[in-house]
Please model this.
Amino acid sequence: MTNNDIISKGQDYVMNTYGRFPIALVKGKGSYVWDASGKQYLDFVGGIAVCILGHCNDEINKALTEQAQTLWHVSNLYWIKPQVELAEKLVRESGLDKAFFCNSGAEANEAAIKLARKYFYRQKEGQRNQFIVFKDSFHGRTLATLTATGQAKYQEGFAPLPQGFVYADFNDLDSVKELVNENTCAIMVEPIQGEGGIKPAELSFLRGIRKICDEAGILLIFDEVQCGMGRSGKLFAFQNYGVKPDIVTLAKGLGGGFPIGAMLATDQAASGFAPGDHASTFGGNPLATAVATKVLGKLCDQDFMDNVKQMGDYLMEKLQQVSDPRIQAVRGRGLMLGMEFAVDSKELVELCMQKGLLLVGAGPRVLRFVPPLNINQAEVNQAVSILKEALKEWQA
Model:
């Protein structure tokens, strides 16, 4: 089938929930993908920060194949060996105490919201059910996580939204203090805002939030769905700040492309859940956890993480050297970088795609760079070269 054949059938049968680009990707290897016409693209989207070891990684394929020949699925009514192994490794590396597994970032954040409320309910403080979240944040597409998301465009048309969410300004500690009251149960924040424009939290901001939570007995939730799993140059983004949360949520890169989400919590926070309080049929299934265990093993290799930092620094340096009067800022951490423009950058994304580079926006004016974490210098050079060519033709 050609690109046009696939697109035509897709328009007939697939629900119209994405503004899709006019190509159909059919194959991938490493940092590259190919469309149905055989055209090659350098992929700096990676499923939006998901394919952290590139496409069709041999070691992940082996882990998946071996598990697929052993056991696909059983209920969480039984202990699952690769799930227990993954939980142990996540707990050990994070410094938290317990893990819950699900299938996506939205599910992980939904679980965190439920856990925070149930925790205070079990403390006989059920009135403490309000969350402080942040403008420009993104936490998912369920009704609760959509409400936690501080962007009105995602919420439009879904009223009535759940109650109990108030919005502070990111990197503004005073705006947080103004919202804290006797009904606050948790503060939920991304250490690096993703969909909000690739905005890293300031050190004083996260440390200040931790202090507020400690003083008021509030739970601190870090959403690391996009910025976690090595993306920031550390295994967990919070490790860059020396600030430990009570709950952290993960997904995207955790499975290297295989769907899996996770919520980690301290023993104290985790005590909010008892059997029957929350569950997921497919969460932590043998296939997903076997793959994620292999991915996590790679991320825990210090040489691998050193390369992430080196390539992140190199990409940042190369992007900062790009000269164009429309560029307003280049920011981010590790291999989660954004280039902000004074104008809408959608046409620039399309120009880069035509020239063989896949990029995606993070808001209307920010180009997002989230390549595989095992990207190399030659591929960074190729990406920046294509970007420069596209900028010359861009008429915005």
